[in-house]
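User: Last request for today: this protein with NDP, please.
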Amino acid sequence: MAKVLIIGAGGVGAVVVHKCAQVPDVFSEIILASRTLSKCEKIKKAVKEIEGVDIKIETVDADKVPEMVALIKKHKPNLVINVALPYQDLTIMDACLETGVNYLDTANYEPPDVAHFEYSWQWAYQDKFKQKGIMALLGCGFDPGVSNVYCAYAQKHYYDSIKTIDVLDCNAGSHGKAFATNFNPEINIREITQVVRHWEKGKWIETPAIIEEGSVHFMFDYPEVGLKDSYLLYHEEEESLVKNIKGLQRIRFWMTFGQQYLTHLKVLQNVGMTRIDEVEYEGKKVVPIKFLKSVLPEPASLGEGYSGKTVIGCVFDGEKGGQRVRKYIYNICDHAECYKEIRAQAISYTTGVPTMIGAMLMLKGIWKGAGVFNMEQMDPDPMMDLLGKYGLPWIVKDFNGILPE
Ligand code: NDP
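Assistant: Here's the final one, the structure of the complex with NDP:
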């Protein structure tokens, strides 16, 4: 029996609340807090209708440590789940430190004024969390999250040494909008307009951003959905996996993008709408990407009518007992099924389900420790055992496909 405080009432937040409400013997009390109360109210109503569970709601500006501290002191949760934005990671971690409460998130810290994300800011909390005897679990969504757990599982069960990892993230769904992002538009666009990096033989190699000339992409044959153009993209789990998977020689991350999406993105970039600095507009300061976010569809609104599937997984190449072994571990998730269950689309769903499972494993003391941890540092078996039960079954098979050299 535990009390959980969830910060962020967006697409992912809604899924986490529903999924926690489905396990009342673990999550006996749920408090959802976010910046906009009406979004919390909407989720509260849906959770009552679908799960028959009452939750408490609050407003909070999680950028402000004293507000977060007061909220934690008021409700005394056993765990704070941060599914707001990466900008709030450090302030929420500070509040957890001050109050001695465990912390979990799904995306690493990113300063608002620089489009750059990395773990160093959160890893710097290692000693403070250790001294306080509390735990921070970072990146507990799907990718990062389950992708890291797949790696730890492959390492534990199939390999003496993994030489290469390719994370392949495919959304073959259709939401019917001309242009929309499946998670927070500001964070998403900042991520995918960056110069790409992947890691090979001990160093980071840069290649052009996905919308630039010379971007690296290839057709991958995904299970059930077929051939999709997959673009090399930098993703945060690469940073922790190169440290924690010993002997790794290369890691790459690929994501599918359609031509319509890329064309819209290119135009938005070319006209300056993806800028993250302030511009003067009629005497006011406006950040173009924040304005753009305000006119794009909310990720939580995309579920209705979304058809098709996501296929996200990892391909491994390495050795066991002197033999070459190639494995592919993946999940297939259906947008319409997610909507039927909890009115969500599959990107929010595939993120929120592992968040709930990670929270459950922490609250039960199955995943424990003092300090700051990435997902692959935990025993992967308990999460792998629960993923299917809560909606994200996985498949493992020998891989005979083709990847770029
Ligand atoms: P949304 O934009 O739908 O939701 C974000 C929510 O956070 C909004 O309700 C927003 O409030 C709230 N919020 C923003 N700033 C604050 C603040 N200062 N104080 C309190 N609440 C705040 O995004 P998503 O739900 O799609 O994404 C949530 C997180 O999940 C992101 O960090 C994203 O990067 C991460 N993610 C991780 C994935 C993974 O696999 N690891 C995949 C997908 C997403 P308001 O409504 O007022 O703006």
